[in-house]
Amino acid sequence: MPPGQGSSEGWMLLAPRGIASRVAMCVGKCSRIVGPCLLALGMLSVAANILLLFPGGTSKYLVEGHISKQAKAMPGVWGGGITVLLAATHITAVGWRCSGCSDCGTRRNAFISAVLSKLALLGAAACFVLSGVGLTDGPLCFYNASERGRGHGILWDYPFLDAGSKEPDTRAQNYLYDRRTWSTCLEPEGIVAWNVVLFSLLLLVSTTEMVLASLQILNGCLGCLCGFCEGK
Prior knowledge:
The chain is mainly alpha-helical.
């Protein structure tokens, strides 16, 4: 055997293993970061949606049924919350169990994390869409219909949705960008700001969840090939 041939062949055999080990270490580190982040975002999403059901911190309007359709649909609970928390719990548990390169069934768990992350992505996307609709339509509130050109008397309805049904640009100008119109809603007190803040928060949270879930899908696919830990 020519001098150096054995060492060169050994290096060629070890090189792919070294690359796979480095990828596996990156996969594990990514899981230990993404998992806790999704846990925090999932809990924040649930909290924001629950607050939407209690305008002003009171249960009166929930009991009376005077809550907007999008809030009652609770996209932040089942969409940006439960589906994301299921994936986050598994990702976090697997990431930290494998931090010491213990026997944790890395490829199987990587596949499961990828599947759960896809469900989390769908849930967060649903939360994003419904929250956007809730923000655009405006809150359900008690207002003077005659002031909005919709009959006479005071009633419960969506005043800003009605105002924008024919002129969407006017709705955006009068509602989202003109706080002077927020006084249209007489009850619950401060409901417009309540809805805008919480639905905007759900939009921000669900967007971040979609980004992290997409990252974890890719991470899980790499984990199926390389595992989570060096030497796996």
